[in-house]
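ping. complex inputs:
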Amino acid sequence: MSKILPELPVYAKTLGIQYAEAQPNHPSAPPILMLAFGKKLSGRPGFLHGGVISALLENAATTALHHTLMQRGTDYNIQQANVTIDFIRGGMDHITFGQGEITRVGRSMANISASLWQDDPDRIIAKAHMHYLISDENEAG
Amino acid sequence: MTGKSPQNEIKPEQPKFDIPELFRIFNDFGHGGFLGIKLSEYGRGWAEFSMDWREDLVIDTKSGIVASSAIISMLDHASGFSCWLKRRHYKPIVTVDLRVDYLRPATPNAPIYGRAECHYMDERLNFVRGIAHNGDPEQPIAHTHGTFLTTPMRKKTPA
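pong. complex structure:
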């Protein structure tokens, strides 16, 4: 498994989302993403916008899925079907971290969740679960 | 859930409920302003926002497809607005949850519209459904459904 994770989407980079480690290549745990607060990310003044929270959750989940699928060693395509987001606490003007968690990755579908936290990893500010469709690279339409 | 009629809770005669002004207040700063969200249409209990295609909002430059999260940002905004438009005055709200079903990728280089309708409201709960589309609501990009909580006015909410 020498492949590195795919580049984050342009919009994620626009927001400032990045991998928390320079070379996130742990075999077991899904990579952690991080996001520094900025004025263009606020909803109410001093709080993270719900859409920004959603973006970090979606990217954390997608990263976790890539991380798992890469270990299979075959080419694949993924397509996100849906997402349900719980906004648990207001996101403050601090650094936010996000990590996905694999519930199940099957041949054609994946159930993934993701959580965000700020200063204290035990105080989750938002949680989401998503479904993804998986297809082989060569069978994608 | 109490048996109270929602009408008892809604006080429509509030002074100075200027929707475009409220939109400007909420769009002058922050992520809504950064995305360049515009108020395109609104009515009692619903609002439609629009957002121009921009290369810094896409998933990758090759496909030019706008990232799903940028669409969520706009629909979160529009959903909150639809609650105020139903209540007919501004009261702080927080998003409790938001469900998004992705039907198709957004069309590259096309503006995106997000229409949200608050279909139920009582003194604390607001349920909002929405769609994102590229100009034809019959060809939706995504369906959304959200729960919003009306909160008491206070200066800073503790985390």
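Chain A touches chain B through 38 residues (CB under 8 Å).
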